[in-house]
Structures are given as structure tokens and as C-alpha cells.
């Protein structure tokens, strides 16, 4: 029988205004100086102010590293490590989406370290536990607050590579719906579908297990019930809070299971053509699941039963197909592009895409259906 493991951040707080827990966390960590990671987009919304107030309430000083770009690359990491090496602090707080949280997790473990980002890309195991971290997600997608992964673009190779090391698991997570109150609908859509991809891929993965199934299934159910609501009504805070929980569940399921071919085929789209992570996954999601239909029929049908228990009269194949239709509908209803043409990608890019995706063995090995280069080409052809 196979063995499995569930790893979670140390303490997770959820609910409205839960940022108020921060002063107590800073005191418990005995941190007199705090380093805050965020980016210009998040800073401009004013949502960091409540965090700054908490730091002051705890009587600590803080410095802010906000010169961070979306979908960070190796040179961004080198710059941010230089910045954190110049900052004094005993605790790192990340306020942002996956880009900010990935950077904060990496930099917390790289402050004063002898290894650089290229060493880590070569050998993930070099990483040691660094400063304690607090993750405050401001998008409803990556689940980075729950994973021990950081995804970095490597421009030299035109790809994105995941660094995976348990020392990056956050010590604290604060899931506060107020943090996504002003999130633009377009970002709600893309990050919400990313979270759905995490849930569905982990549920259909070779690494799926009873622990990850629990979080993946409930994550998927919450996203199907709330994403379109939150996209259509920015004031729907109940839907948004549910999405924040679902995104976290997606991250927990990644930490116990693993994403599969959807993410493998999406990575080259981010790495070379800079399509946002959620959008590239949304484009590849249904076509990859159609290719997986045979191999994942039982799992897709089971997920359909969980999401819509009323379909009990249908065959397993019908239910699995219905799940894929649901995925297609949610991408359509949230108006995410579904073709690569819109990004100027054409047949001339095909060889690169196939080769780069086929190289992403870490994720393709999790895919129940073995995809040959020809299978991968056929999937890309559907969206070109
Ligand atoms: N570590 C993991 O487990 C993991 C998993 C999936 C994806 N990722 C990585 O995460 C990155 C993508 O993260 P993301 O999709 O969360 O987006 P993001 O962090 O790149 O943010 C996208 C944009 O949204 C803005 N933004 C964020 N929160 C906002 C708010 N509340 N209001 C207004 N604007 C806001 C940001 O300023 C930014 O411009 C990619 O690099 C991806 O590879 C990591
Ligand atoms: Zn993702």
C-alpha cells in the first residue's frame, strides 16, 4: 500500500478581520523588526495599512520590500535577496498573490545563506530553514500560502521551474476576506481557475491520497459554487471568503498530492510568453482533461458526484464528461481567453512548446495518462 503525508503551515487563521491576530503573532515570535514583502499593485489598494497598524501595535519596527514583479524570475530573486540581506528583521510577512508569497518564502530561506538561486534550482535540497514567515494571500488562486513550492521563471531557458523544499512551509497563514475585497474581477477569474486546476489535478493525480482528496474535493466544490458569483458581483464577500478558503485547500492538496499535465503544459506559456499563471492554466485545463478522460474517468466521475450529488443515474463516463464541461463553462463564464492566438502564439511556436512541456517531468509523472510528445502536440493544437 502506498504511503502519504499531510503537511500544513504551523498555524492557520481564517475569518473576517483575522489580520488582527498579527500583533499577537509578532509578540509570540519576539520579533522587534519585521520585513514585509508586497508589490506595487497590492500596496496601491491600501490593504497593507491594516498590517502596518498591527506591526506598530506589537511595538515592532518594519521595512518594506515592494519592488517585486509578477511571475518572478531568477534576476528578481537575486535582487530581492540583496534587499533582504540589507534589512534587519526576525520575521517575514508576505502580503500578496503567489508572486509575492513565493518570493517571501524563498528570500526568508536565503537571507544570509551561502547558496544562491541557481544553486537551489540545481539542488533544491540545499535550502535550510530561514526566518519564520507569515503569509497573507491577496488573490484567490495559487495556494502558495499552504505549499512548500516557489515557482521561478528562468529566462535563460524560457521556462518556469518549481523549487520544492519543506523549509519553505509557512509558519503562519492569515486568510482574511478583506484582502481580496478590491481584487479586480479579471484577477479573481484567473486565480480562481488556477485554484480549481490545483484541486482537480491533485484529485486526479497519481499522488492523490485520502488526505489530499479531502481538501481537493472541498476546494473544487467551493470554487464551482462561488467563483462566478464573486466574478459577477465584487461586493459578494461571502463568495470571496469561500474562494480564499478554497485556494488554501488547493494549496494543501498540492502539498500532499501534486499537480499534473495542466500545469506542465501551462508553464512554457508563462515562462516564454509571459501569460499570467491562472490564464495559462485556464487555457490548457479542459483540453488536458479531455486527453485524460479515459485514464481519470473514475476520479472525474467521483468529483462530479461530490460537486453535484443529483447526477446518480448517469454512467461514470457521462459524469466524467460533465465534470470537463463544468470546467469549460467556468472558464467561459469568467471570460478568460481560451486560445493562444490571442497572445500571438502560432504554429511556429509549437516545437518549443512541446519540448518545454515534455521536459516538465516532475508534473507529467503525476499525470495518470502517459502523454507522449505527439499527445502534447495534439493538445496544444486544440488551443492554437
Ligand atoms: N508556490 C506555489 O505553490 C504556486 C502555485 C501556483 C502558482 N504559483 C506562482 O504564483 C504566481 C502567480 O500568482 P497570482 O496568480 O496570485 O498573481 P500575482 O501574485 O502575480 O498577482 C497578479 C497581479 O495582481 C495584483 N494583486 C494582487 N492582489 C491584489 C489585490 N488584493 N487587489 C488588487 N490587485 C492585486 C498584483 O499586484 C499583480 O499585479 C506565479 O508566478 C505562479 O507560478 C505558485
Ligand atoms: Zn497553479
Shape: globular
Q: Give the strand content.
A: 5-15%
Secondary-structure class: alpha/beta
Any low-confidence stretches, pLDDT <50, length ≥5?
none
The CATH H-level superfamily of the largest domain is: Dehydroquinate synthase-like - alpha domain
How would you sum up the major sheet?
A: 6 strands, parallel
Q: Ligands in the structure?
A: nicotinamide-adenine-dinucleotide, zinc ion
For this structure, the CATH topology of the largest domain is Dehydroquinate synthase-like, alpha domain
By DSSP, the count of extended strands is: 8
Strand order of the largest sheet: 1-8-5-4-2-3
* CATH architecture assignment of the largest domain: Up-down Bundle
Let me know the average pLDDT. 96
Helix % is 40-55%
Computed CA radius of gyration, to the nearest angstrom? 20 Å
Query: What is the N-to-C order of secondary-structure elements (H for helix, E for strand)?
Result: EHEHHEHEHHEEEEHHHHHHHHHH
Under CATH at level 1, the class of the largest domain stands as Mainly Alpha
Tell me the count of domains. Answer: 2
Report, as a whole number of angstroms, the end-to-end distance: 42 Å
Q: Helical element count?
A: 16
Amino acid at each position: 500500500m502506498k504511503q502519504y503525508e499531510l503537511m500544513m503551515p504551523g498555524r492557520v487563521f481564517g475569518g473576517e478581520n483575522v489580520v488582527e491576530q498579527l500583533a499577537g503573532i509578532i509578540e509570540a515570535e519576539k520579533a522587534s523588526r519585521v520585513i514585509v514583502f508586497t508589490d506595487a499593485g497590492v500596496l496601491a489598494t491600501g490593504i497593507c495599512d491594516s498590517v502596518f497598524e498591527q506591526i506598530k501595535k506589537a511595538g515592532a519596527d518594519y521595512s518594506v520590500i515592494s519592488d517585486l514583479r509578477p511571475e518572478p524570475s531568477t534576476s528578481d530573486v537575486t535582487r530581492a535577496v540583496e534587499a533582504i540581506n540589507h534589512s534587519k528583521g526576525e520575521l517575514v510577512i508576505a502580503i500578496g498573490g503567489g508572486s509575492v508569497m513565493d518570493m517571501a518564502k524563498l528570500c526568508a530561506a536565503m537571507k544570509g545563506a551561502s547558496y544562491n538561486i541557481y544553486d537551489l534550482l540545481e539542488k533544491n535540497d540545499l535550502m535550510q530553514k530561514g526566518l519564520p514567515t507569515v503569509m497573507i494571500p491577496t488573490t484567490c488562486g495559487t495556494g502558495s500560502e499552504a505549499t512548500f513550492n516557489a515557482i521561478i521563471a528562468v529566462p535563460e531557458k524560457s521556462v518556469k521551474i518549481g523549487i520544492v523544499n519543506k523549509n519553505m512551509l509557512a509558519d503562519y497563514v492569515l486568510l482574511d476576506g478583506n484582502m481580496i475585497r478590491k481584487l479586480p474581477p479579471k484577477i479573481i477569474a484567473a486565480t480562481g481557475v488556477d485554484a480549481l486546476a490545483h484541486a482537480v489535478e491533485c484529485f486526479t493525480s497519481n499522488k492523490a491520497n485520502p488526505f489530499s482528496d479531502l481538501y481537493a474535493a472541498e476546494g473544487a466544490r467551493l470554487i464551482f459554487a462561488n467563483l462566478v458569483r464573486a466574478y459577477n458581483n465584487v461586493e459578494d464577500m461571502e463568495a470571496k471568503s469561500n474562494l480564499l478558503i478554497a485556494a488554501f485547500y488547493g494549496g494543501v492538496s498540492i502539498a500532499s498530492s501534486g499537480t499534473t499535465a495542466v500545469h506542465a503544459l501551462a508553464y512554457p506559456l508563462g515562462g516564454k510568453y509571459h501569460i499570467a499563471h491562472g490564464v495559462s492554466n485556464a487555457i490548457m485545463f479542459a483540453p488536458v482533461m479531455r486527453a485524460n478522460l479515459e485514464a481519470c474517468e473514475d476520479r472525474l466521475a467521483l468529483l462530479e458526484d461530490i460537486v453535484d450529488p443529483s447526477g446518480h443515474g448517469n454512467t461514470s463516463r457521462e459524469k466524467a464528461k460533465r465534470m470537463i464541461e463544468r470546467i469549460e463553462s467556468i472558464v467561459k463564464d469568467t471570460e478568460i481567453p481560451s486560445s493562444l492566438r490571442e497572445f500571438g502564439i502560432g504554429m511556429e511556436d509549437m516545437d518549443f512548446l512541446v519540448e518545454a512541456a515534455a521536459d516538465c517531468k516532475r508534473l507529467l509523472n503525476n499525470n495518470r495518462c502517459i502523454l507522449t510528445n505527439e499527445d502534447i502536440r495534439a493538445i496544444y493544437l486544440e488551443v492554437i
